[in-house]
Amino acid sequence: MTNALSELLTKRLRLRWLTESDSDLLLAIWNDPAFVRYVGDRGIRTLDEAAEAFREGPGRLYRDFGYGPYRVASRDTDMAMGICGLFRREGLDDPDIGYALLPQHCGQGYATEAAVAVMHHARHTLGFRRLTALINPENAASIGLVEKQGMSFEKLLRMPGDNSDVSLYGINW
Predict the structure, then answer these.
(1) Distance between terminal CA atoms of the chain?
(2) Has this prediction a pTM greater than 0.90?
(3) Where is pLDDT greater, at 84 or 2?
(4) In this predicted model, what pLDDT tens digit does every residue of 94-149 receive, in sequence order?
(5) What structural domains does the chain harbor?
(6) What sections of the chain are H helices per DSSP?
(7) In the 8-state DSSP scheme, what is residue 79?
(8) Is the dihedral of CA 115, 97, 34, 13 positive or negative?
(9) Max Cα-Cα span within the chain
C-alpha cells in the first residue's frame, strides 16, 4: 500500500480515487442487477447523470472529508473492476465501507482484497477507531466478506429516505 491518500496498491489491484472520467464505470455498476437488488436503483441511466452523481457523491466526499470510494482496477492492466471505499451517510456517526464489482470480476477475491486495503488505510492512515458497513440482509456474500474482516452484526436499521431495513455491521479498533 502507498502512503498517498488517493491511491492504494495491493498484490493484484490498484485503487485510486474516482474521477468524473470514471462515469462509465459508475453507470455500469449502478445499473448492474445485483447492485440494484442489494443496494437499490439510483435511477441513473446516462453518462451525464452518472457524471452529476459523481460530483454530488464521491466528488463531494473527497472535498468535504478527504476520503471516498476508489476505482478498483487490475494492477497489471488497469482494467476497471469496480469500486470500494469509505462513505459518510446521513444517520451514521462513523464512516462505512462499501464496495461493488462488475459481475465478471465477482467470486475471485477482488472485493476482499480491496476491502482489506481500504480498512487498513482507514485504521492506520486516516486514524479511524471504528468502521461500519451497511448491508442488505439478503446479501450473503457481502455479509461473509465483512465478517471475515472482523466486523460483527450490530442491528437492523432504516436509513433516511429508504423503505427497507439494512444490517449494520461494525468493528472497533
Answers:
(1) 20
(2) yes
(3) 84
(4) 999 999 999 999 999 999 999 999 999 999 999 999 999 999 999 999 999 999 99
(5) 7-128 (3.40.630.30)
(6) 23-30, 33-38, 47-56, 58-65, 110-120, 140-148
(7) -
(8) negative
(9) 41
